[in-house]
Design a protein that fits this description.
The protein has 200 residues and is α+β, with helices and mostly antiparallel strands. The N terminus is likely disordered.
Length: 200
């Protein structure tokens, strides 16, 4: 009985020590400063990085292709450029209408590479913790859907019947066609985009 008791006691002591060690590691590992507040950082909208939640920036649409149908599929974007590469573990986005989006990082091949995506979102403060560090000099938020898209579609898509007049002056009812008056997806409203690594 004494031997069993001692083994149990040793196990408990070991587990307690391990828990304390892990707790100490978590406490000791602090986030870096917000990289977007560093000098020479630029953004597609300056409001993303002005450290003021009261100023609201907007994502921007890519250059028009000249085709209204093609442009319907082109998402808007919010981009941050850092003056040098940083190891990023955490991305914080403050937005009131961002619903579905993708985060991309500028890789060593000079290409944008997906590092995170979210299909549904209801949070106004989106706190993303990456599973591993991403070393990059640029972060892009690709907007797939906002909470205002449905209202914009109702406003800018009109369904009409394509009628035609026959040779005897009568009107012949034709097919239904959609008419686009403007964009069918809203821009994302973003107050801040914050980027963090771990403090040295």
């Amino acid at each position: 009985m004494r031997a069993k008791f001692n083994v149990a006691r040793v196990c408990k002591s070991f587990l307690l020590g391990l828990m304390c060690l892990c707790h100490g590691c978590v406490i000791g590992q602090q986030w870096s400063q917000n990289y977007t507040l560093s000098p020479d950082v630029t953004a597609s909208d300056p409001a993303f990085i002005d450290n003021d939640l009261e100023t609201i920036g907007q994502s921007q649409r890519k250059k028009s292709s000249g085709s209204a149908i093609t442009d319907l599929e082109i998402p808007s974007e919010a981009i941050i450029h850092l003056p040098e590469k940083k190891s990023i573990y955490r991305i914080e986005i403050h937005s009131t209408n961002l619903e579905e989006f993708e985060v991309q990082a500028f890789n060593s091949r000079g290409e944008w590479e997906k590092i995170y995506d979210r299909r549904t979102n209801k949070d106004r403060v989106i706190d993303i913790r990456l599973s591993k560090a991403v070393t990059t000099s640029g972060i892009k938020v690709v907007v797939r859907r906002t909470t205002e898209d449905a209202a914009l579609r109702r406003e800018n898509i009109r369904l009409d019947r394509e009628n035609a007049e026959t040779s005897d002056g009568r009107r012949r009812r034709g097919r239904y066609v959609y008419h686009l008056k403007g964009p069918t997806t809203a821009l994302a409203k973003i107050a801040e985009i914050k980027l963090y690594g771990y403090a040295n």
